[in-house]
Amino acid sequence: MRDFLFGGLLAVALSSGVAASGSPVIAARATSTTVQAVTITGNAFYQGSDRFYIRGVDYQPGGGTGVESDPISNATACKRDIPYFTKLGINTIRVYAVDNTANHDECMDALAEAGIYLVLDTDTSKYSLNRLEPKESYNSVYLQSVFATIDAFANYTNTLAFLSGNEVINDVNTTDCAPYVKAVVRDMKQYIGSRGYRSIPVGYSAADVSQNQEILADYLNCGTDDQRSDFYAINDYSWCDPSSFTTSGWDTLVANYTGYGIPLFMSEFGCITNTRTFTEVAALYNSEMTGVFSGGLVYEYSEEGNGYGLVTISGDTVSPNSDFTYLSSAYAAATNPSGDGGASSTSAATTCPTESSEWDVSGDALPAIPSAAEKYMSTGAGTGPGLDGDGSQDAGTADNESTGTATAGSGTVTETASSSSTSGSKKSSGTTMAPVDMKAFGAFMVAIVSMIGGMALL
């Protein structure tokens, strides 16, 4: 539940300059042939002709300190942890933030040798959409960072997928962000294609918000192929041991998403209300779910002061706890179904949802890519800002924000938007910061919340 809203509150406004254009400075290279690229057919992932199920953990050591760091550029720590990944029996890690100026070859190669793929968030705390100011934070400074991250990881064979955002929409008052979330998906897909990279899946990680999670799923899967997400991921903590397929409501999840036309997986799961024995793993990889879900990622590998860690890290020492042992046993016992596991071979678009009290979006138009960012499609993003840049959320100007709506796939402005919106979405009444799940930020972020608690946000 890592939340990047704070970047807009803490970052200094970025100056008007952007990184130089041209070929990416980081020359990403193909990883070992130990792994082959994962592709999508219908509503499932495939490794060659074999169904691929994500079995993984979320991985961001140090994430609870409040100081962002890149675990993939730290080859020593990465190689320290890979043997524990192997003991867990995982094939995928999710990383929430990376430094797009760093070199990642050594860790990515080591992960590939271990048969481990990467699901990567392209946002950081400083470079992300601000749910309270989506129009202003959807700007070329932000997109340049996103595209630079794609450049840094696109040529690794074991880059499984990119996530365009995490829980940007986290209640009923922030659904007006949806057109901007979807525009970023579109822009990332267009950038990957324009730069000649292989077709790396792009999707979004949604919060467990009952009022709009399924509506958002329909929205991200409606429209033309260039606008649709390649997959949809959900953060779900509804299975709290002792539980069951029906007690947890996972049977309802399956029923609600049956027929959904793109792959679906859990980008976070693992309730800590009681002892975590991970009995949900058996259900997740059972045929009762695999026709709809393609596995998931347990939150999270390292203990960050929130109780969710599988191991405690102290310098070079890794100490697994009982959760680690339970999860390792659960993954080992969960055999994938034979064949395609009930997957669908067709990818059907959904109908775009209509505006309602729980969905603050009218119409299907998306904001056009800012003209200042469109040039990256042909020139490349250039050098990224890394983790220490000035940030993008307060960097929006009339010159680098979107100024209208776009036709499907063109990025061309087709009409002038009103001053309040570029998406056909009216501004939500949510003018105060929604409660933030602090499990990912630890004690440091609790202090930050206290410090800014009295500040006006808009």
Automatic annotation (TrEMBL):
Residues 401-432 have a biased composition (Low complexity). It holds the Pfam family Glyco_hydro_72. One of its GO terms (cellular component) is plasma membrane. One of its GO terms (molecular function) is 1,3-beta-glucanosyltransferase activity. It is a lipid-anchor; GPI-anchor. The keyword Lipoprotein applies. It comes from the Eukaryota. Residues 1-20 form the signal peptide. Its main location: membrane. GO terms for biological process: fungal-type cell wall (1->3)-beta-D-glucan biosynthetic process; fungal-type cell wall organization. InterPro entries: GH, Glucanosyltransferase. Residues 337-363, 377-432 are annotated as: Disordered. The keyword ATP-binding does not apply. Splits internally a 1,3-beta-glucan molecule and transfers the newly generated reducing end (the donor) to the non-reducing end of another 1,3-beta-glucan molecule (the acceptor) forming a 1,3-beta linkage, resulting in the elongation of 1,3-beta-glucan chains in the cell wall. Belongs to the glycosyl hydrolase 72 family. This is 1,3-beta-glucanosyltransferase. The lineage of its organism: Eukaryota, Fungi, Dikarya, Ascomycota, Pezizomycotina.
